[in-house]
Amino acid sequence: MSVHLLYGDSFLVPKRLDELIVEFGASDVLEANRHRLIGSQTKPGELLSMCNALPFMDDYRLVVVEGLLGTAEGQGRGRRRGASAESKTSDQWQALGTAVPLMPDTTILIFIDGPLGASNSLLRMLKPLSQAEELAAPKGEGLARWVKSTAETKGSSISPSAIRSITDLVGADLWTLDQELEKLALYCSGREIRDSDVGEMVSQIREASIFAAVDAMIDGQPGVALRLLHQLKEDGREAPYIIGMVERQLRLLALARDSMDRGVPQSELGGRLGTSSDFVIRKTAEQARRHSMPEIIWRYNRLLETDLAIKRGRLEPNLALELLVGDSVANR
Are 297 and 253 in contact (CB under 8 A)? Predict the structure, then answer.
């Protein structure tokens, strides 16, 4: 029995999963022996039965479980589920801790998940029984090195100022960074990627900045949020337009959070959000997992109050935007 636990950044985790499958030689496993389960929709008996079954005409049975540990994650500030729901989830899966060591050697069981807190009950149970890897997105100098290395793997080089520019705007969203570096490498065709190229070519930066700014506002990081919003203003966007973009993102966030609380599969999320953009669906889902509905509603109502104050002439737009961002500290 081989058990692995991969959790952390949504870009690094699937990359590592692919590497593990290759390392095990499981890439060519028959379809009948390959299983991918969604944790929130999986029952303990179903998983245990699958893992205990011997492979059909093959060396291995590969079972990948996505998002199970996240169901036992703390629900954040103001969440209503609280500790009782976490306890119920943990109790439901207690048998897994006993069953894992008894599973056949022919089973490869891999749990994949997003960021998890150290107090996560399923993480504490499974970590001693598995080869666990926490794959966090790099920060600071580590992120700069990652951007430089990724550009080089795409056959290009990138100047320090261009690295600062793209990381300031996108942050540690490795999916967007990877996609935009791919386009920049093709655009620059062998020459060094410069700061001016980033400004001309990165099509998703403005969208990514809004995601990052909304996250920073809700997480109580006004300095980060203001820097991102000011960058949008420097790009020629006026405060009312920026507020409209924030409003749209908070509305999508509320829809996504509500869908998740109701158990709607992510495959159906695009229809709920009214978009076919994989980027918007993925980013909104990631963001919704990190914030409670009460947080989102409070922020959305505060935004509506700000918009009304601007339209009635009570607040100057730029000042209103800064006050709105500053509220993120007061709400913590």
Answer: no
Among candidates 229, 235, 137, which has minimal Cα distance to 178? 137
- What is the token pair recorded at 146? 């990652």
Lowest-confidence region among 17-21, 238-242, 272-276, 312-316: 238-242
Rounded distance, CA 23 to CA 27, Å? Answer: 9
The CATH class of 207-330 is mainly alpha
Residue 301: what pLDDT?
86
Position 27: which residue type? Answer: S
CATH 3.30.470.20 fits 140-203, yes or no: no
Determine the pLDDT at residue 229.
75
Q: Among 111, 118, 113, 177, which residue's Cα sits nearest to residue 144? A: 177
Structure tokens at 124: 């504490």
Kind and range of the H or E run holding 115: none
Mean pLDDT on 130-147: 93
Assessment of whether the complete model's pTM goes beyond 0.70: no
Give the helix ranges, DSSP H, for the chain.
Answer: 12-23, 44-52, 82-92, 94-99, 121-126, 140-153, 160-170, 174-188, 195-201, 205-218, 222-234, 239-261, 269-273, 278-290, 293-311, 317-330
Hunting for tokens 């990652």 — which residue is that? 146
Q: Which residue has the higher pLDDT, 110 or 92?
A: 110
**What is the DSSP secondary-structure string of 223-287?**
HHHHHHHHHHHHTT--HHHHHHHHHHHHHHHHHHHHHHHTT--GGGHHHHHT---HHHHHHHHHH
Structural domain spans, the chain: 2-135, 140-203, 207-330
Q: What are phi and psi of 245, to 5 degrees?
A: -65, -40
